[in-house]
Specification:
The protein is α+β, with helices and mostly antiparallel strands and 320 residues long. 31% of the residues lie in helices and 25% in strands. The chain has ten helices and 17 strands. Strand 16 and strand 17 form a beta hairpin.
């Protein structure tokens, strides 16, 4: 059995995976974290050194769990709880659910474990690991000091970008359960003064590498799939659908492929989407690894057997 743990943002992708599970007659159940609330049957207990988890459905013989985004339970599901306790209740429900699944399925294969995901998204750690594996790394600083940013901007001839240190998800405060994402952006001259005018948290700034082309390398276990993206004219290719539509499969050097697989393993991930820039001198610059990176377009547009590979990974490991 496979358990799919996901939220509304991932519904389409999970449905796409479940088509393969159905065709292979693999049983599965859905757990929507954002819709999980006090009205659902939930009972976790330990008795005589045995762990029990009761849900609205029977959980048995679990070989794999696929987790995607997994937002906190929606506050709209917590109408009976006072407003000042809604955030606390939402976190407690989420932690109880994920913690119970981790305890109940110690030998199941996770894509990916939520605890590993959280640490894997920290860019500083990623850059450090990638450097030890032989990747080139863009010049990088993390600062809220305006003078240091100006120096860095000048050192890199004004070619600087900024991105999130961890995840780029921002919660919308004016609308319930609405979020938006921060993409990679250029730092212009007029932005330099803004750091001095406001109280900002530490921000990651990075040298902007001139691209020959970009790579999205999807690693699943010991397998990988690589796509070439013509993104010379954009800072973040995710904002331009045309770039995905014109992408192509590409063979990458063995040492780069091995480094991607090792990096994924050292981040304790079973799946990671790794973004790399190849410059005019064919140097491979590591940008980041994303455990939640998109891959559906690689399966559909480029013909990679990603969906089958994920389902096989989730069913080829020991069950509880």
């Amino acid at each position: 059995m496979i358990i799919f743990v996901y939220d509304s943002f991932s519904e389409r992708l999970v449905s796409y995976l479940q088509e393969t599970a159905r065709s292979k007659e693999i049983p599965f159940i859905d757990i929507r974290t954002d819709q999980f609330g006090p009205d659902q049957v939930f009972k976790f207990s330990t008795q005589n050194n045995k762990i029990n988890l009761n849900l609205d459905y029977e959980v048995q013989d679990v070989t794999g769990l696929f987790c995607k985004f997994t937002q906190l339970p929606s506050k709209s599901k917590l109408q009976s709880i006072a407003n000042e306790y809604k955030q606390y209740a939402s976190s407690e429900i989420y932690d109880a659910l994920i913690g119970s699944l981790l305890a109940l399925c110690p030998y199941a294969h996770w894509i990916n474990r939520p605890d590993a995901e959280f640490l894997s998204h920290i860019k500083i750690r990623q850059l450090s690991l990638a450097a030890t594996l032989g990747f080139h790394i863009p010049n990088t600083i993390i600062t809220c000091d305006q003078r240091r940013l100006v120096d860095f901007w000048n050192e890199n001839d004004g070619k600087v970008i900024t991105k999130a240190i961890h995840r780029g998800w921002v919660a919308e405060t004016k609308q319930i359960d609405k979020n938006w994402v921060l993409f990679t952006n250029d730092v212009q001259a007029e932005h330099l003064e803004q750091l001095n005018k406001n109280n900002w948290p530490p921000i990651l700034f990075q040298q902007k590498i001139e691209k020959q082309y970009e790579l999205r390398v999807l690693v699943i276990g010991d397998k990988y799939f690589a796509a070439q993206l013509d993104s010379k004219n954009v800072t973040d290719w995710r904002v331009d659908e045309h770039i995905v539509a014109t992408s192509n499969p590409i063979h990458i050097p063995t040492n780069i492929a091995d480094a991607c697989i090792k990096l994924t393993s050292r981040l304790n991930l079973a799946l990671a989407a790794i973004d790399i820039i190849v410059d005019a001198n064919n140097n491979y610059y590591f940008l980041e690894a994303n455990s939640q990176g998109g891959w559906e377009w690689m399966d559909i547009h480029l013909g990679f057997p990603i969906r089958d590979t994920i389902i096989n990974e989730l069913t080829s490991h020991i069950s509880i």
